[in-house]
Structures are given as structure tokens and as C-alpha cells.
């Protein structure tokens, strides 16, 4: 589920600066907490919760840990307390500086070559009061002065090109006492992007469009293909050594003549005969990845470096000369320093100012870095997005409050022996957030107990003293645990909704949540792993598409309060720059299935108008759940077309794999029953239950015909879903590509293949050949000639383009960075929406995926106060309103908060 906060640079500054109205919580305060449950238990924890079973807390390798990770480690920002609690605790000031947002900031290159870089250096054009939007600090700085805590460069149409974040200068510490720095965030990104790690998160990280990251990963795969082995340590980390009881990088590395090795020779050595050019490509790609620190040298802070450079013995040392320098420390001993390869390449360090400066604080030292918009020391990092994919401000905030995490690499490599051993037990994980791990039992029926971290820099704002999270996979058991008082939050199964609502005490605790994203079926159309499967036939897939009654699917899957969807894209609240919902561009759009019918079978592009769709946000609504894509007659026609192409075929055998949860099992049963209802036993669908990690591996390796998935990770940008089918993401063992189906859920279908198939394809109808021309298809789908031709152009990779140039071309188009020719042709935001609508029609026509339902519209019951939501367990402010650990806390849950 994607839960995002939307912002618009078009809003009036006065509106942006409007203060949050402080809501008195006197009437809501729990003077004498009265248990709502008569059988309230005497428990040894303040707050109980439930989470799906975990076999590891390795948040680098496994996506499944994402739910609880915010309580283990601090992201840069987090969601603050509900307004009623904030009125008691007070608000942490948090502003974000806006630079550019004019014609000089079309690109970073243009901005740095404009007068604005100098003229606006310490005075941003405006700032966002993030604290007014319910955002609080985690590891980020909350300096009230100007916009020092965070600042970014925005395009004229309010998209983020790059931004720099200042951390809290070491106030955040790991549970072993180590100071947290920017390096910890870089190390997290580096672990995931290193193909030696084998992280499940790599594809999601690539989808964030960090500059150059896709090329870095691609070059590693090319090396593997060429040499039959991976390149180890592609980020060029030095080895560790222990000095004075602490781990640090070994930076003194000399050749046989006693000369210091360069970073190139020391950090990126040859590992196979003849690989020198390939290694250099990996090195250059690593240095180009858009995630940089302001740290100048390994093992030393910039502040300490500047203070050493002020010493008389170091007057002749030029810190910009070469990859290594040798200084005298305060005791007169030689100190070898090696340059950090990931220093922000845009920053200019004014070493001439060192002698006349006094470095008492980190902020003093940052003045040596000339430009505030770039990283200046080891407590600042800068992220730069791909030029073709600048991000919306809500995308940036989601990166900062959920996607960029820290990891203590020194602990992982030296104490555990590598990232594969991280998170296996309590001993093998470090935390740096508001809680420490008190106890941990992994696996089904296990639990995680968190205790307040008394050393946390913000401990006075941590509410609960002890929290217990039970590992549980059964929704009904979760509800029973809530009723018995063991946990304070449960997602209510549909069968229990009326029972809970009938109880006045429970009714007051119930709330409805909404989310954005598409739940649907994915088909394995990869030609290496599944080329002989009949599922490759689009007529068979279309028979499935129209045979499914999504209304029935809703009630059997447990998503009773959700909505059926027949459109691949899940826009959520996405709006155009003028504030108009993008979904309006899909209204009054239709497609016509192949075949002749007694009644009109035109299908609307969306199941609901935008106005009807808004009803999901209401607690009580009676929106019709009729599935407008359910057309049994059409399904039977497509099946007849399929059978005509395969005379004599008695039965089609297919496998649906699922992760053993009740939801996925029931979804498979509805599919199986739907096919049997219309086609008898012609389709033999095997339902195969697998453990979660095995299921994920089977999907990524292409060992399935049909699977069910939540696709919300694609995001809510205009092109988030449709761009999945521009390139393949299947298996190619010859090129050492052994996983896929993440960027493109079909593995093999692309728009290019669709147009190629129209060039000479023919249909068999009742045994007769019927020519199917491209023109007839375009008219049947209701796509104008102009839009059709533009889609064809975007779907074809040109002969002079490599894969990265091709991606940049279509990404530029969808981010409104039009070529001069496109501008002349009148392309604008509205036409881009028409293109997306046209692509949606093509997706329906060939059905590489089948959209089913929206995600995360459901009823919860909660006694959890303090926190804004429980989509992720960010629990610093959370407490059980029946057992408040501090007197006077508001008896208000997130669903009841103002």
C-alpha cells in the first residue's frame, strides 16, 4: 500500500505557512484509564501488536521486515504524533528549503551555471514547513535556522532534481555506542545495489531512479556474464583494521616502492585476467551514482581534519592533492588519510578559509563547503535523481521516511562476517531508534519485545516503555487476541465486522483505512522459463480477464470494503499541476473486445468515475461493487478463439502459486471456480501453496504460470504502472540474469511485441482465418491516430540507443521533459494522460496482467493512540489507550484523531 502525503508548489505561500491549529486534549485525556475490555489482562508490556511471522530481522535482504523496521532504526524523517498528543509534547520545527523552481532549474547543470547558485546560496527561494504536515525528525536535523536541515532543487513544474539532508550531528547512536553518520545511509544503498548481496529490495531501490544506479547494477551483471563470476566489492571499500579498540578502514596501502596506491589501484583491483577495462567501468559507474556524502577522507570528520590542517606542522599540506595525504596529528605522529570516493562531486571546499576559521562545532566546519545545496561533511548527504525522472515532493518524502535506512557496516562485516548473517537473532542486529530489542523469538508464534531506549536522543518523546509484537499469520486469531486484550490493533475479517460493530465499546474503536495500489494476477510470459505454456496466448488470458467476477473476488479474499478495478494503473490521489485528478483523463474512455455479440459489450476504461471513486474515503458508503469487466459471453468467445487455434486440445494445465496465506488461497479458489463455471474442466488449475520466502523466489525465478501480487510498489506517478511494459524483465541465464518479474511482472511482454504481433497476425474464428489489421485494432480500442503513432514511437528502441538512453527517452516524455519536436507538436500534460490511457487499453487488449482490486481499503479496530497510522510500525508515540504508560494521555486513536 502506498500511503503518501501530497504537496504542491503552486499553493500560496500563506497557505503553506498556515499553522496547525492546536487542539485541546483536555476533554480527551485519560484521567482515570478505564479498560474497555472486561477481561483486560495483567501484562508485562504497555502495548501489544501483531505482525506477520518473520524468520529474520535482516532489513537489507528482506522486504518482509519493512513493517517493523521503523521501530528498530531511524529514517531521516518520520510521521509525528497525532495532533492531540502533539499539543502536549509540543511540535519540533522542521523546514525544507526550496531552491530553483524557475527556468534556471530545468536541470542541475543549468542551475550550477546560472547566477542563482551564488545569489541564492544561503537564502532559499521559499521553504516548506514540514512540521505543519505532520512530519517529525528521525535522524535528520531539526535546526530552525533557515532551511539547513533539508533543502532541494526543484524544476519549474515543482519536481525534485536533487536534495541535501543534514543529520543531527551524531546525536543518533547505535546500540553498541557507535555514532551514526551519513556513511550508514550510503552503506545501506550500497549493500542493496551490490549483486553479491542478493537483496530482495534491489528492484524497488532501482525504481527510485537514483542517478546512475541502474547502470552500476547493469555493469555488474555484464561482468558476471563475461567472466562467469561476480566482481567482489564493487563499491571499492577498503578492508577494516582495528585501531585503539575501534574498527576503521585500512587506508595506508603502498606499492613495492613504498608509494601510496591510488584509489583506483587499491580499491578497485583486477580480479580476473583481462578485466581491467570492465573494472574501470564499474568504478566510474559507482562514483556516478547519485547518493553522496560530504565526508572528505575516510576515518576522520571534516571538522577534525580542518583543525589538524591549522597546525603549524601541516601548513604545507594540500588536502586536494591526490587520493592520499599525510598529516601530523596533535602528538606529532604521521597520519595517513585516504580520500572518500563518494564525496559530493559538486561541492567546492574553500581550504583557504581554514586558517582564519574556528571549528568548535560541525556547523562551523560546514562553512568550508561553499554551497549549502550540496553536501558539506559526514553528517550531510545528497541524493540526485535521474535527469529523466525528477520526483514529486511526496515521492521525495517517502524516500526520506521509509526508503533510506541506515546500517552499521563495521558491525556487519567485522562482528558478523557479512550481511547474510545480519538479523538472524538478537545478537546479530543493532538498533539506533527509540527502542532496543529486549527479546526476540523468530518464526511462527514467535514475538519481538521492544524496550524504550534510554540513550535515544529524543527519549523524552518516546511514550511506551515496553512493546510486544506477536508474530501471527491468522486474521481471525489476531481479532481474538484483540478481544482478549493481548494486542491493541487488528484488521477485522469480514465475517467479524458485524459482530464488532454490534458491540458499542468495540464500535467506538473501529475505523476505516484506505490505500492506493492494484492487487492482481501476473502471468509468466517469459520465453526462457515458460515458452511452452498456453498462458502465452493472449486469447486465453483474455478469456480469464472477462471470466472473473471481481465483486465475488472481493468478498472471498477478505477485501469486502475495497473496490473492483479493471485498470492496471492505481493512481491514488495523483493530480495534474493544476490540481485536477489524473483519473478524470480516463473517464468516458472505452474499449471493445474482439468478436460480435448480441448486446453491446463495450467496457469502460475504469470501473468507476473519479467522483464515485472518492467514496472509498467515507466511513459509510453504499457504492455498487459491480464488476464492469465481468463479461461471461466475451470470455466464452475468447476461449473459442483459443480452442480454434489448438484443435484437439483436451485440457490446459496451469499452476497458480501462492504464499499460503488465506487471502491468496481464496483468490486462487475464486479463479479456479470462475474458470470451471464457464469452461468446465478444460482449464485444470493447480493451486500450489508455498512458504513466503519460497514463494518470492519462485516468482522471481519464473517458476510459475499465474501468481497473485500487490503491485503498490510501482507508485502513484502517472507512468508508474504503464512503464512496466516498455522493457522485458525475464530470465536470461546466458547473460547470468537469474531473477526477474519485478520491473515487468510478465517477464516477457512489451508494447513492441504487441505492435509486432499486429503486423501480420491472424485470428481463427469458427475455423476461418480472419485478417486482423492494426487499423481495426486501433479503432476497436478507441485510440486516436496521433496517440497510437506516439505510443508506437515510444515502444520502439532506436538503433542508436542503448538501454539507458531508451529508458531516458520515454522517462523524459512522461516527466514532461519534451523534446523541441514534441513541444512543436503540442505535447503537454494532457496529452501524456491520453498516452497513458492508450497504453492501458493495449494492456487490457493483451492482458499480460489482470487487475482485480484496490489494496488496503478495510476496517480496523484499534486502541492504539499517539501515532498517526500503523501502515508501518513507527511506534515512538504509540500507546494503548487502555493502559497509558503516562497519566493524562489522550484517549484518541489514529482513526479518531482530528
UniProtKB/TrEMBL annotation:
Pfam families: SBP_bac_5 (PF00496). Keywords: Signal. Transmembrane segments: none annotated. Residues 375-730 form the Solute-binding protein family domain. Residues 1-22 form the signal peptide. It comes from the Bacteria. SUPFAM superfamilies: Periplasmic binding protein-like II. This is Solute-binding protein family 5 domain-containing protein. It comes from Mycoplasmopsis synoviae (Mycoplasma synoviae). The lineage of its organism: Bacteria, Bacillati, Mycoplasmatota, Mycoplasmoidales, Metamycoplasmataceae.
